[in-house]
Amino acid sequence: MSFPPNSHPDPGAAPDSLAALAGELQQHLALCQQILALVQHEHQQLKAGAVEDLSALQESRQAVLERLPLAQEAVLAHKEEWTRLTSAERKKRPEIANLLKQSTDLILKIVALDRENEQLMLRLKLVPPSHMPPAERQNPSLVAKLYKDQP
């Protein structure tokens, strides 16, 4: 049995599926860029000591972060198609690999800057005591001593 030209089944993922993945990755990247912009704005305010109430910062952050799970689910819906491809097939779609790298790089920047923001909040005493970790977690030798002292 012969197939007409260009009608052979594709051993890799369907092109439509990969195009959908690229689209979802672009949307995810745009959302990550919005999150980075928010975190950078928070960082500037914290460095300048211009933050007296965290609620305004938290509200703007929460509005964007609520969209993140939907974006992640959309990407995960197409992830299986990408992982089934061989490395040779993946090389034929460099835009997807590039979007994945850009997203990963952006997420790492967000995490690093957010960690700096948390430290600035602690220094400026903007974190409510209820959000502080217990003293045992801050002092690992105390925990070790507690375990050592038990029979």
Structural class based on helices, strands and sheet pairing: mainly alpha
State the shape. Answer: extended
The CATH class, by name, is Mainly Alpha
Whole-number average pLDDT? 81
Radius of gyration: 23 Å
Strand fraction equals: under 5%
CATH topology, which one? Methane Monooxygenase Hydroxylase, Chain G, domain 1
Number of helices: 7
CATH architecture descriptor text: Up-down Bundle
Catalogue the unreliable spans: 1-11
The total tally of domains equals 1
What descriptors fit this protein?
single chain, 151 residues, mainly alpha, Methane Monooxygenase Hydroxylase, Chain G, domain 1, 7 helices, 74% helix, 0% strand, disordered N terminus
Question: How does this structure look, described?
Answer:
The protein has one domain (15-149): Methane Monooxygenase Hydroxylase, Chain G, domain 1 (Up-down Bundle). It has helices at 15-48, 54-65, 68-84, 87-91, 94-123, 135-138, 140-149. By secondary structure, the protein is mainly α. The termini are far apart.
